[in-house]
TrEMBL record:
Keywords: Signal. Residues 1-24 form the signal peptide. The keyword Protein transport does not apply. This is Redoxin domain-containing protein. The keyword Aminoacyl-tRNA synthetase does not apply. Coiled coil: none annotated. It holds the Pfam family Thioredoxin. Residues 17-143 form the Thioredoxin domain. It comes from Deinococcus arboris. InterPro entries: Thioredoxin-like_sf, Thioredoxin_domain.
């Protein structure tokens, strides 16, 4: 392929994916692109995705790229993602950029997790650990 063709394809690809998602959403009554992108498993935090997952157990993982413990926790989550219960969504939340969320939940250092309810109220907050602690805290909160 020529350099022009590759450049054109790489430029058009994101738009083609958006069009496919819109087409798929249109063929499914009651769904739009925002519900098609509904939070599942482990994903970067965005307010839209966080709000879309309010019917699930939501965990904010305050993560920093410069934190070795955060990188280890993320590797653990990624490696063992199949162990995450279907009703739990973990949001990788940028510790350095999400100042309002840090203030809202009283986060003072990275590698902190917050399990929140449908209204966004903190149910549990803990520091350290990985997927085992997420699963254990989500299960304990369900029993409350």
């Amino acid at each position: 392929m020529t350099r022009f063709t590759l450049t054109a394809l790489s430029t058009a690809a994101p738009f083609m994916l958006m069009a496919l998602a819109a087409t798929a959403a249109a063929s499914m009554p009651g769904h739009d692109i925002s519900t098609m992108a509904k939070a599942t498993g482990y994903q970067p935090y965005s307010k839209a995705a966080f709000d879309a997952a309010k019917s699930k157990q939501r965990v904010l993982f305050f993560w920093a790229s410069w934190c070795p413990n955060c990188r280890a926790a993320e590797a653990d989550i990624q490696k063992n993602l199949g162990s995450l219960p279907a009703g739990v969504v973990v949001f990788k939340t940028d510790y350095d950029k999400e100042a309002a969320l840090k203030k809202q939940y009283g986060i003072t250092y990275q590698h902190t997790f917050v399990l929140v309810d449908a209204q966004g109220k903190a149910l549990r907050k803990w520091s350290g650990g990985g997927l085992k602690q997420i699963v254990a805290n989500a299960a304990a909160a369900k029993k409350m």
